[in-house]
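lol ok so funny story. i was supposed to be doing the assay writeup but got distracted and ended up predicting the structure for this chain instead. priorities right. anyway since i did it might as well share w the group, maybe its usefull for someone
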Amino acid sequence: MTGRTLRLRRLRRSTRTPSTRKRGAQPKVVALGGGMGLSASLAALRRITGDLTAVVTVADDGGSSGRLREELGVLPPGDLRKALAALCGDDAWGQTWARVIQHRFQSQGELHEHAVGNLLIVALWEQFGDHVQALDLVGRLLGAHGRVLPMSAVPLELQALVRGHDPARPDELSTVRGQATVALTPGEVQSVHLVPNDPPAVPEAVEAVLDADWVVLGPGSWFSSVIPHLLVPELLDALVETKARRVLSLNLAPQPGETEGFSPQRHLEVLGRHAPKLALDVVLADEAAVPDRESLDDAAQRLGAAVELAPVASPDGVPKHDPELLAAAYDRIFRMHGRIGPWR
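and the output, tada:
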């Protein structure tokens, strides 16, 4: 028996199952992802539950996060900051702090383009020497409607195997390194992996997944924000073993670069190849983004899931999720597909 299996079993024994919660409790939801996709999901989920945990990828190597990571050897704080901002309330306090931590300095010096929230998070990491304790403190300061956790406590490098990265050699396979590069790579991404390839998961993230009623994966950059969670062995084990229902939220459109030309069903096929043991319960998609419902149904069924179509896109035509519409879709899914939970 591996050490990873033993740790997972200990967490399983120490974790309450959904059926033991007090009647009247809200659904316990864990959302996994990174960047703006996770932020959209969190902005919706905080409207329907007060028991919400975000588990965030830590492979970013671009912008302010990349500079802090390179200079100080810390986890990239940017996606963690975005998640905290998304969990801020709609009152004056929440919206003020959301703007403050998202604020970027504009200068001719070293502070140019650094986000205030990135600096605050890193400062607290250095003060406490504990990623989770520091993020919990930032969440309390902001009045965040939920908790934010990194998926791993070590900085990770994302690497992708790409076909046709060099347009002059369309059939050649190349390795592309770094999340920022993978997200915009020309060519067709075949697969991704992490370096180190067996990173430790943050125990609180594993425990949150095991203790959840619902786990939400996506939307977001498929290869650089969604799939990386499935490449952390302890976290994948928890996703496979949890008694929670699992919903996958699809993007509204392919992402230029890493998923250019992908159909909705192709997204599911790629995810299934990276985590063949992972089953899903529901695949959520916007009807306008699904040209072939039958093919999507077939791909979802191979993962054990039913497809739910709902209007979740912003009415202004910009390809982004509307928080209120997405919240309504999640709420309906939790009620129609979930067990008869104590929050019902």
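Confidence is low (pLDDT under 50) at residues 16-21, 340-344. The first strand starts at residue 29 and ends at 33.
back to the writeup now i swear
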